[in-house]
Amino acid sequence: MLLEVRDLHVFYDDFHVLHGVSLDVGEGELVGIVGANGHGKSTLLKAICGLTPVRSGTVRYRRERIDNIAAPDLVARGLVYVPEVRNLFNDMTVRENLLLGAYLQRDPNRTREILEQVFDLYPRLKERANQQAGTLSGGEAQMLALGRGMMSDARFMAIDEPSLGLAPALTESMLDTIAQINRSGVTVLIVEQSLSLIRDHVHRLYEIEEGKLFKLEPDTSEGAQAAPAGKDG
Ligand SMILES: Nc1ncnc2c1ncn2[C@@H]1O[C@H](COP(=O)(O)OP(=O)(O)OP(=O)(O)O)[C@@H](O)[C@H]1O
Ligand SMILES: [Mg+2]
Fold first, then answer.
1. Checking CA distances to 87, which of 58, 93, 131, 219 falls within 20 to 30 Å?
2. What residues does 80 pair with on adjacent strands?
3. Which domain holds residue 142?
């Protein structure tokens, strides 16, 4: 397994948010977690990515313990949290926001190369490279959040509610590009509120309820769609 989470407990002061979460994500997988408001989705992704402290339990990435290792060190290892869009730097341009994502990259040629990849994936961002991030539409801002994550040369992306504030059509294309990023070799863990939204876009699903995680079995009932595009390609 690329990522192994075992019996994870996270608190905010006395408030117990994650109650013994265990989770596996294999290399190349696109795994989804669904859950309602306040049930601990963001907390789980942040705990994995070193952005909120782990009280007990373990997180392993490539077999190494990473629980309570700080986020910048994890970014350097290719593990990146893609936050909800409200965390962009609104006064900076699209290009500046993207380059911030590459702040740990030592090789400027590699940075240019990934920037081209992001612009190929999202020509809208290229057109708007010099526009202030705060003036982007909701969909464009979401593209920028994802693009900034890609800029760090991520091998594993934990993506927090990419559909937030997007119209259904834009949500679909957002999820399609996430699948495309996944097919390019990036392992993805994605959280969303609605099962129907991501069911057809992921390889496997979990549900989080009051800080406890459950495996969701594939829906084989009539009318249900099979698993999404394979991991090849
Ligand atoms: N920094 C914090 N300090 C104290 N409590 C927090 C903090 N962050 C989150 N919480 C609380 O922890 C619980 C889980 O929050 P979390 O953000 O993980 O939920 P979520 O599933 O991502 O919700 P949403 O769908 O609304 O984004 C909530 O009750 C929230 O109020
Ligand atoms: Mg959240």
1. 58
2. 157
3. 3-214
Q: Burial level of 206, CB count in 10 A (0-12/13-18/19+)?
A: buried
> Which range (13-17, 87-91, 192-196) has the least confidence?
87-91
Residue nearest atom 19 in ligand 1 by C-alpha distance: 38
Token output for 141: 């801002």
Query: Is position 32 within any domain?
Result: yes
CA of 161, closest atom in ligand 1: 27
| Inside any domain, residue 230 | no
Measured between alpha carbons, how far is 58 from 14 in angstroms, rounded to an integer?
20
41 C-beta closer than 6 A to ligand 1: yes
63-93 per-position pLDDT tens digit:
999 998 999 899 989 999 998 766 778 899 9
CB 1 within 8 A of CB 61: no
